[in-house]
Amino acid sequence: MSVATAKPVSETRSILGPAGNRVRVSEEPKRKSDTNTIKKPQRPRNPVPVPKIPEPVVRNNGSVDSSCSLDSSSSGGSSAKKSASSTKSVRRVGLKAAKVVPDNVVSATLSPPKISGPPKRCDWITTHSDPNYTSFHDEEWGVPVYDDGKLFELLVFSQALAELSWPAILNKRDTFRKLFENFDPSTIAQFTEKKLMSLKVNGSLLLSEPKLRAVVENAKQMLKVQQEFGSFSNYCWSFVNHKPIRNGFRYARQVPVKTPKADHISKDLMQRGFRCVGPTVVYSFMQVAGIVNDHLLTCFRYQECNSNLKKDLKPKIEDTQVLTDALENTC
């Protein structure tokens, strides 16, 4: 006896449709859930192109750059029209406000204003220096001198530096010139002892007695040098081949008190009978007479003294050569 037993249905059977077997019952809910969770981004069919902003405007206008970055971050078809319209408005505003400057032209408004101040001088001239001393530095110190009377005056001042400072000497300059007969060597050479003792200012001698006697003795020896070399200027400048020495120091501490050249000139002067003409005195004389240019490189007078030299040196050399030839012919 055979009894047909029905097997329990464990799963839903496939339904044969016109397009093939599909499990409609099991896949429909899954398809619905997929459509609910995953959404593809919609792209606009015809996106509005963003107009390109000219490069000079972008480079010179920072507000346009920031607006462009905001426009580029927005997406979606609904916001594309808004971003395009906002970009157009920003472009119009940016073009009005932007100032396009070529790369090779510097705008005058960007250049810093020039600050005019006092010229740079040597370090020993400060804002608190005596005005006469400052003027002496700016106009005379280091300028080549070729006049015998002027050279003798500067030699006397260099000797006086052992007792007085440059500001004190310059403040008494007119008194010096009056008492020393405008530094005429022929007149000073005839000074007597009584005349020397009368060279007083406010009851005191202008210089010490040894210095006053040295001035008179040096005037006598200077007359002899003029007879031998034609001029005292020719004698002094012959030690440097009629060309000033340019040291070109950068700092005041580098400027020497004496040099081997000054020592050589000092010995020659002493052999000729000059007095109070040590190497320190001689080097101060060389500085103030322009035989050596000791203005610092940072001082505005360094180049000016060199330019004055180019103008004045050639005529002086020619005059010296004429005197030398005349002396040779006389001999």
From TrEMBL:
UniProt region (Disordered), positions on chain: 1-92
Compositional bias of kind Low complexity: 55-88
UniProt KW keywords: Metal-binding, Zinc
A Pfam short name: Adenine_glyco
GO molecular function: DNA-3-methyladenine glycosylase activity; metal ion binding
GO biological-process terms attached to the record: base-excision repair
Zinc among keywords: yes
Gene3D superfamilies reported for this sequence: Hypothetical protein, domain 2
Matches recorded under InterPro entries: Adenine_glyco, DNA_glycosylase
Keyword Zinc found: yes
Domain of life of the source: Eukaryota
Composition bias type Pro residues, residue spans: 44-54
Residue ranges with Basic and acidic residues bias: 24-34
Residues that coordinate or bind Zn(2+): C122, H137, H295, C299
Annotated protein name in UniProt: DNA-3-methyladenine glycosylase I
Species of the source: Quercus lobata
Gene, per the UniProt record: LOC115974289
